[in-house]
Amino acid sequence: MTGINWVAWGAATLSCFVLGGIWYGPLFGRAWMALVGISEQAIQQANMAKIYGTTFVLQAAAAFMLAQAMGPDAHWLLGLHWGLMAGVWVAIAFGVGYLFEQRPFKLWAINAGYNLCSFAVMGTILGAW
Fold first, then answer.
1. Global pTM value
2. Spatial distance between the Cα atoms of 38 and 129, rounded to a whole number of angstroms
3. Which of 5, 17, 32, 81 shows a CA-CA span of 20 to 30 A to 123?
4. Is 102 left (phi over 0), alpha (psi -120 to 50) or beta?
5. Sequence-ordered list of residues with C-beta below 8 angstroms from that of 38, at least 6 positions apart, any chain
6. Mean per-residue pLDDT, 102-125
7. What is the model's pLDDT at position 2?
8. CA gap 82, 73 in Å, rounded
């Protein structure tokens, strides 16, 4: 836990949380819902406090792990590089699972795209501070 800039960690976590709200909201929300078979009614009935709270904790853990991997001497460009590499790694792992689960390519593109963008933003923020 050495070398972590906790302000950057918090900002990186929050940025991914906000990006997710935009990504799965106005940008791709309707398409994502149709592809996974979730209705507006199901979302309204879900325990959103649990979903958002757990999501925030998981994103905080991802930001922490990325910061640890980058080390204390990273700069924004190195952070962007680490973030993109992590995002590509996640996208590839999703791709393998989606192939065997026979999920639509469009669903993979939405989910993989979010992870690629969120890790890139996270890494850039962590490296910049």
1. 0.93
2. 39
3. 32
4. left
5. none
6. 98
7. 66
8. 13
Q: How far apart are CA 100 and CA 16, in angstroms?
A: 28
4 within 8 A of 64, measured Cβ to Cβ: yes
End-to-end CA separation in angstroms for the chain: 16
State how far Cα 32 lies from the chain centre: 15
Choose among 36, 20, 25, 11: nearest CA to 128. Answer: 11
Mean pLDDT, rounded, of the chain: 96
User: What number of residues does the chain have?
Assistant: 129
Residue 37 DSSP SS3: coil
Rg of the chain over Cα atoms, rounded to whole angstroms, equals 16
Apex CA 14: angle with CA 13 and CA 15, to 5°?
90
Residue 52 to residue 6: CA distance in whole angstroms:
21
